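so my prof wants the structure for this chain in the tokens format not the other one, which i didnt know existed until like an hour ago. anyway here's the sequence
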Amino acid sequence: QVQLVESGGGLVQAGGSLRLSCAASGRSFSSYVMAWFRQAPGKERELVAGISWSGRNPYYPDSVKGRFTMSRDNAKNTVYLQMNSLKPEDTAVYYCAAAPALFYNGIYFREAEYDYWGQGTQVTVSS
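here's what i got, hopefully its the right format
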């Protein structure tokens, strides 16, 4: 069992930056695939960053590539999402998610593949 707690959300002006954190409890954090999803009002939840258990080659969709950076610190059981050059369209609730890697050194792309979710943190970008 893994519990995830996000923090770091808030209100920021367009062009600004925020850093989200996701602290995980439970054992074997280093063996989990981790991801950040977001959900804007009236829209489906979408993947914005994913990282394998090894931390290599994080994935980003085109909508955030070059602006968002995901990292993990296995010693602290924490993943981070550094968000720069924020745009109003980045406004959403951001969720941290985890799934057992099961010897797979990649990430999962579908929401249904993640077993554990945080409660979400609101990010609002004003224009």
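also thought this was worth mentioning. The longest strand covers residues 92-100.
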